Amino acid sequence: MNLPLGLSSLALTAKEAALEAAKILKNGFKQSIKVSTKPGRQNYVTEYDNQSENCIISSIKNQFPSHQFLAEESGLSYQIEPEEVLWIIDPLDGTTNFIHHIPIFTISIAAMIKQEIVCGVIYQPFTNELFISEKNQGAYLNGKKLQVSSTKFIKDALISINFPYDVKDHPIFSIEQLREFTLLGASLRNLGSSSLALAYLAAGKLDAFWMNHLYPWDWAAGKLMIEESQGKLTFYPEKENLFTTSTILATNSQLHPELLKCIKH
């Protein structure tokens, strides 16, 4: 697999951790999967979520014993100081797909220093798509530099929308806005993995992404990839926050003003 030259030790560590955890998920995908639930409708967790997370944290700790973690299943390791490195991890983004044996899911890993994402890795094990980004160094898919799409009009756009599990508690995600997107001609897709959708947006495969009630492990790696591929991401109406959920609109930049109007309408 070709990779961009000059990866930092953080990015290399994230890449290796993702590849190692992917072995667990690919093996587990073939097995009978034990499922438990978390709060929210169809919000599942499996033994492989936990195994993948443990693998990633262990792999990173081998290289950086003093670093801290914010992971989907285990939460925050402890309250960190701003100058410390914080790893933000989703060990299996797309658990619902996984348990239904739909091979669309990812591992997402990002490193943050002083409230800024400095590197991110998103890996799709079954398509072998390895997305890597570093601050001010670009974003890459299997070694090829990424650039967002050049789509200018909503009528030509392919937009990813991921429905939240607890839509009753977060009514801002309105069917009326989705209806407006389709009336304007956009095609909508729900991949079931927010991090994969953000990576595909960075790669120019999608033109926009909209979802509310996202946790930081859903967006951390993807945010940097979009910024490094010349896209735009807005936290709406909330601001970016590691300890609350966020509503996100991400686009190829050209569609951003018009789609933001649709959302606010």
From TrEMBL:
InterPro entries tied to this protein: IMPase, Inositol_monoP_metal-BS, Inositol_monoPase_Li-sen, Inositol_monophosphatase-like
Pathway(s) the chain acts in: Polyol metabolism; myo-inositol biosynthesis; myo-inositol from D-glucose 6-phosphate: step 2/2
One GO biological process term: phosphatidylinositol phosphate biosynthetic process
Enzyme Commission identifier(s): 3.1.3.25
Positions that bind Mg(2+) 1: 72, 92, 218
Entry's family note: Belongs to the inositol monophosphatase superfamily.
Name the record gives this protein: Inositol-1-monophosphatase
Gene source species: Protochlamydia amoebophila (strain UWE25)
